[in-house]
Amino acid sequence: MAIIGAGTKANLLPPCDVYLTTVAPDKVSSAVVARQATIYPLEQMAGMRTLARDDLYVTAGAGTSLAEIQTELVGSGMWLPLASPWPQATLGGIIASAYNAPLRMRYGGARDLLLAATLVLYDGRIVRIGRPVVKNVAGYDLPRLCVGSQGSLGLMADVTLKLAALPRARTTLCLHCSDLSSALRYGYALLPICLTASALLLSGDAAGWQIHYTAEGYPADVHAELGEVRATLARLGADPPAEVPESGSEIWATWLAASQTDLTMRAGVAPSDLGALMRSHAPEASAWLADLANGLLYLRDPGNPVALRSDALALEGYAVVMPGCAKPPEGFDPIGYPHAAAELEAALRGAFGS
Hints:
CATH superfamily of the largest domain: FAD-linked oxidases, C-terminal domain
Order of helices and strands: EEHEEEHEHHHEEEEEHEEHEHEHEEHEH
Number of domains: 2
Oligomer: single chain
Low-confidence stretches: none
Distance between the termini: 12 Å
C-alpha cells in the first residue's frame, strides 16, 4: 500500500497494488489511474478547518488542493507562500515530497511553514504533533519529520501552516543575456541585493539565456530594491531589464509543468558552487533553470545524468530525478546519494509503528 495525495508526484513510487488517497477518485493523477491499482479515496480529508488570520495560521485537510486553499484565503488578505506546477497538488503531497518553489528564499520552505499535523499511524493510532502557533519552541520539532517523509510515517489527515499577508506589490524584471557567462556574472552580482526578492532565476535553452528577478512586499520597498537592481545591471554594462507579468515562482511552475514528458533532474549544491555545475552541464541539456538563491539547478534532458550526479556529489550536493516528470533509464537510481541517516530513519519509523 502507498499513501498519496492527488498523485501528481507519484510516478517514481515503486509498483503498488493499493493506493490510499486524500482526494476524490476523479482528482487522482491519470498516471496513477493508469496503473490499474485499487484506489481507496478519503475525500473527507479536504477543506479548510480553521482560519486564524490574526495568529497567522490556517488548518486544512491534507487532501486540500493548493489552488483551493489559495482561493479561500484571498478574501482574508492572506496566502500560503507555496507554489506547485500542478493546480491539483495537495497540501499533504507538497509537504510529504518537500516540493519547494523559489519562494523559499523569501518565506522559507515547507519545513518552515508547517506548524502542526494530525497523523494516522500504521497501527491505527492518531497523533497530533506540533502546535498551531508561530512561536512554538517547546519540545522536539516533530512536524518537520513529515516534510519529505513520502508517507513513510503515516497518513497526514490535516496540516497547520503559517500564513503570510498578500504582498501589496509584486514586480518581476527579465534580462536577456548574450551567453551563460554573462548571465552568471549578472546573477551573482544581484544576489547580495535580495531583501524583498522572492525569486532570482537563470534560465536558458537553444534560444538564449535570461535572468528573472521578482521582488514583492510593500510598494516602497519593492521600488527601492528594483531601482538598485537596475543600477547594478547598468554598472555592469547590461541592457535595461524589462518588466514581465509572471512572478519567478510562476515561471518555475510553468517550466516544470512543461517538463512532464522529459527526464528532468534537480541538482542541489551551495549557491557559490552552482555556477561551476551550470558551466559543466547546462550546455548539454535541452533546457535548464537555476534557482540561484537556493542553489538548485533543474535540467531537462541532461546529456549525462551519471556525470551530473557525480559532480554534484563531489561538491557535497546531490542530483535527483524530479517527481512528476519522466522516469529515468532502467537501472538509474532516482535518488542516488548516500543515506547517512539510514539507521536514524529506521529508528524513527519504528517509533511511529511503520
